Amino acid sequence: MKRRVCQRCGRSFLAGIRSTAKYCGQGCRANSRSDNPARFYKHGIYKSKSGRYEHYDSAFEEEHMKMLDAKGVKWFRADTMSIPYWNPRLRRQAVYHPDFLIKSKAGDIIQELKPYSMINDQVVQAKAEAARKWCREHGYTYEIICSAGQV
Asked: Which one is predicted more confidently, 3 or 107?
C-alpha cells in the first residue's frame, strides 16, 4: 500500500502500489470516472414511522420522507416498480424506477421528485410520459414534485 494525496480534496489515502488512483473517493466524494452530479447528492437510510428502513438519494427525498411521516401518510419507496420507456439520449429502451408509492383511500399515487432545473430535460419528460401512460393502464395517479430550491 502506498499513501497518496487526493487531487481534489487534499486528503491522504492509501492506494495499492500499482494503483493509479488520483482521488480518495471518500471526503470529496470524487470519482474520476464519472461526471454525474448525483455523486454529490446526500445519500443515506431513513427509518420511517412504520419501522421500515428506506434509502434516499438526495436531501430532497429525505425531507419528503419526513413530511410524509409527519402527515401520517402510508408510503413506500417504489424502486421495485419498473416502467419501460424510450430513452431519447441513449436512443434505446430503458427502465424507469419511480421514487415513491403513496397509498391513500382516493387511490395509489406514484411520485417522482425532481429539482426544478431538471423538469424540462428530455429524459425526464420521456420517463414522465411513459409513467403517465403506465399509471392510466394500471389505475394509479402520477405526480412530479419539484423543489425550486435545488439547482
From this structure: 107
**Distances in whole angstroms, Cα of residue 149 to Cα of each of 46, 116, 136:** 22, 8, 31
Mean pLDDT of 24-43: 54
Q: Which residues contact 62 (CB under 8 A, 6 or more apart)?
A: 42, 44, 46, 56
Q: Look up residue 118 and give its three cell numbers.
A: 431538471
Rounded alpha-carbon distances, angstroms, from residue 54 to 6, 9, 38, 47:
32, 30, 18, 6
Query: Domains along the chain?
Result: 1-35 (no CATH), 41-147 (3.40.1350.10)
Closest CA to 38 of 115, 100, 92: 115
Asked if residues 61 and 99 have their Cβ atoms less than 8 Å apart, the reply is: yes
Burial class (CB in 10 A: 0-12, 13-18, 19+), 41: middle
pTM for the whole thing?
0.69
Copy the grid coordinates of residue 80.
Answer: 421495485
The answer to whether the beta carbons of residues 98 and 78 sit under 8 Å apart is yes
